[in-house]
Amino acid sequence: MMTAAPVFATTDIVEEASYRNHLTFICYMFGTAVTLEDWEKASAVYDKVAQNAINDGAAIAYTEAMRHAGITRAEATMERWKSQSEAEDACGGILQGQ
Fold this sequence. Notes:
The chain is an all-alpha fold and about 100 residues long. The longest helix has 26 residues, at about 5-30. It starts with a helix and ends with a helix. α1 (about 5-30) runs antiparallel to α2, α1 crosses α3 and α1 (about 5-30) packs across α4 (about 85-95). It contains four helices and no strands.
């Protein structure tokens, strides 16, 4: 069994991957430069990161909670956009790995 610190660090990575995955999907739906292929890549990264966290000892329920936290953060980011240009800027950052 892992100690708490590595599990928390691993699940933080799950939250970040979930955030990027969901924000990529939002960007795709907003009609920005993000493509379906970009979203599929982000989904694959999320799936791998989540599985690695579980394999490293993170509880499935906690990993799932981090997935939802990432989704919530992505939706909050989207809600702050006041224009299409703000969406384009944020989505451009996602494509550049920011």
